[in-house]
Amino acid sequence: MRREIVVGTRESRLALWQANWVVENLKEANPAYHFRIVGMRTQGDNILDVALAKIGDKGIFTKELELAMLRGDIDLAVHSMKDLPTELPEGLCVGAVCCREYPGDVLITKYGKSLDALPRGALIGTSSLRRCAQLLGYRSDLKMVDLRGNINTRLRKLDEDGLDATVLAYAGVKRMGWENRITQMIPFDICLPAVGQGSIGVEVRRDSEEVLRLVSRIDHTESRCAIQAERALLKKLEGGCQVPVGALGTVDNSRLMLEGLVARLDGKQVVRSSMAGGMGEAEKLGERLAEKLLEMGAGDILQEMRQEKRIYE
């Protein structure tokens, strides 16, 4: 009888798509095992009428899965890497960072208009402080409206609630088969993605050597290095609160390039820089770029946000 591995995931359509994708790849790499998916609701799934910036987003999409793993109810958990906090509970680790999809954001509008062609004062639906800050930095006349829910819900609200546009991650839109709705791929010089965006992560217990070995077979080295650098940057900057941070790591011929930014919520100040190094120094590269951003003024932005308590306690 084949050994069963229990895979935990959120219950949203996108999360289940990602869990099934992981399981199919694990089956191919580990044919001697049977994999069973278990869906769970997280805090983030249960609280949909409050902006993420008000409730905080540290682990609200991952905590329940992590507790189940620590109890031994599941053997591993599948997450969007952008949902995974930079500090994991003791005893857990990222066993695999899967090959990254295009990490950028996309604009979806009712009338097929690009970001530049939207009318003055256009209403943009998004719950992301990172997107709000960067889009306002590009066009200060835009009006940001909090919009939460899964992709289908957001597209329905776009069609029904009088919004002009919404901004989503390309990876999720593609995985859910909504590519035909994309109006514009937003350039990285306008909007850097969230840390880890576009990649699926597999979290496991550190002491589970068997499961670590199984999931290591779907780990993608270049994606792991790029995202490791991004996560190190975020960890250095975060300081215990949610902040509008964008980052993008890319690997070319074993050379790791990292871009990062910190922005004021109103978009009136954006601190942005980049740095390059070897793949083997991903974490140090992220920390060094964070230090550079702090020296360039990001520290003042973060201090101002904390003093004004504009994020969450």
UniProtKB/TrEMBL annotation:
GO cellular component: cytoplasm
Cofactor(s) the record lists: dipyrromethane
Coiled-coil ranges per UniProt: none
EC number(s) from the headed UniProt entry: 2.5.1.61
GO biological process: protoporphyrinogen IX biosynthetic process
Zinc as UniProt keyword: no
Protein's UniProt keywords contain Isomerase: no
Pathway annotation: Porphyrin-containing compound metabolism; protoporphyrin-IX biosynthesis; coproporphyrinogen-III from 5-aminolevulinate: step 2/4; Porphyrin-containing compound metabolism; chlorophyll biosynthesis
Domain Porphobilinogen deaminase N-terminal residues, every copy: 5-211
Catalytic activity reported: 4 porphobilinogen + H2O = hydroxymethylbilane + 4 NH4(+)
NCBIfam families tied to this protein: hemC
Extra remark beyond the main annotation: The porphobilinogen subunits are added to the dipyrromethane group.
PANTHER family per the UniProt record, alphabetical: PORPHOBILINOGEN DEAMINASE
The protein's assembly and partners: Monomer.
The protein's name in its UniProt record: Porphobilinogen deaminase
Lineage: Bacteria, Bacillati, Bacillota, Clostridia, Eubacteriales
